[in-house]
Amino acid sequence: MECPLSVDMACIDMAAAAHCAHPAASTMPNQRSDTYGDDPEVGERHSFPANPGTARAAATWRVAIQRHLEYRHSTVVCVHFYSAVSGNYIAGIKVKQDHGAVHYPFESDTTFKMQSPIFGWRPFEATNGGVSYTKGEPSPTPATSSHGVRSNDTTRYAERDLAAVTIADIERIASTKLEPGVGWYYNGGADQEETIKENKEAFRRLRFRPRMLVDVSWVSTATTLLGQPVSMPFGFSPSAMQQLAHPDGEIGAAQAAEAAGTLMILSSMSTISLEDIRLRAPNCTLWLQVYVYKDRALTESLVKRAAAAGFSAVVLTADSPVFGQKVMANKYRFHLPKHLRFGTLERSLPSATAESHADFDEFVDDLISPSVTWSDVAWLREVSGLPVVVKGVITPEAAVKSYESGAAAIIVSNHGGRQLDGTPATIDVLPEIVEAVGGRLEVYLDSGVRTGADVVRALALGARAAFVGRPVLWGLAYNGKKGVSTVLDIYRSELERTLRLLGCADVTELTPEFVMHKNYFWSPHCRQRRRFPSQREVHASDWPEWTALQRADDHKTSLQQQSHKRRIMNPSRENSQFKT
Is residue 415 flagged as an active site residue? Predict the structure, then answer.
């Protein structure tokens, strides 16, 4: 029997595609068995394939949903795609059974919303003629059902996130406000996105070693970066086109950093000119990020303008001779809005407009010189008269080269997983880089820093400060300048709380003894310490040995499992040794 309501399966396809893009974050809840009335199969719980990760899985969802609709003889049908991460429905067509039992009751002609962790709200209409997408504002508040629950109010799932307590909360709320392509571009990584995941997971592999009975009634987070005082060892990495997230853009971020007494690195691809930002945030500590462009005069013009505007340093992005491939952003054809302006670049390059360069990555690829060498560090320092910070260092060799080339500091960074996919997590390479430079220049870190505790981990392993990029964009999308201030407040409170719980009253006193790798408990040093506790302290430099030991243990376990499997599959062969 055909379903009386014509359902546009394009809706299902789009939702399934969104689901496939986030396989680990999604599930589909089972239908309630009590909605089937006197169906012959009452009590049967129908479910659909969860966590689809391929186009084939999406097609499976489509077939399963359509068969379910036909089998249930529904007059009005709904299947929900549910995000376990955001706690929101990604798409839906409401369900009403012929038998009179109602699952999520509603009127047949109404407007619903589609939400995903990246896409944000997109309304579509469901009528007896089918499902169609619409543009415009979300629907008005639906009527209340007889049970006191709003019939079609999917917004109630977002309302419970109004209190932003963590950066994850900020990210979740911001994702509902960003335009689809913008969300993909901001949050996505390069290629398979292995590095973007590893950056965050690497921090979770570090454990704290707290000190007990230490006076932490007062803690200090103040430090200096290139001789300039900041209220905490935390700042903003360069992020392009911040007005895509909120009209406050770079000015809002700079004013929030100014109020917090911290530092902001301004992207040369900012939507507001560096002069206007300095005018609106006169006391903010600002550095300018630049590339070395094919037209050297353009680079020289930018750094001289920065020096004239009172910027304190130039940050050279060294890991991007070309831009990495943003797979999801390309799939959803992300283009710059025509009204967008490259405020900083425009004054030195009048043709730099979003209207004439809709594809941002292609535009920048055409500008950047792929022939940049270490000699350009000294050239930048000479033409700007400012200290140069090299961003994108992930090897000890590059760190030493930076020092020899005249850099004042380096940022250990893999560009947030947006350039070369498959590079190691920055927190993993930090100890050997700190050891290689030997205190001859300042070392900072970005990529994957999502909590104040992550900042503490980075400082303990030798970084002088940690920087973040995406959380600033999420803060802007969340609530403009106030949202960025909320992000800073969260990081500061988590930083201070972690210091107190760790038994450290000053960020400058953090050392590698405060953290340990989770494989510490597998190391021979740990076993030795259990016998002779005073023999030696364990340092981060021992991690490679621990990791090798862990791999050996894993290999041994694997061999044992294979042997056990052979015994199970062929018991007669295993028992033959006992036969005479």
Answer: yes
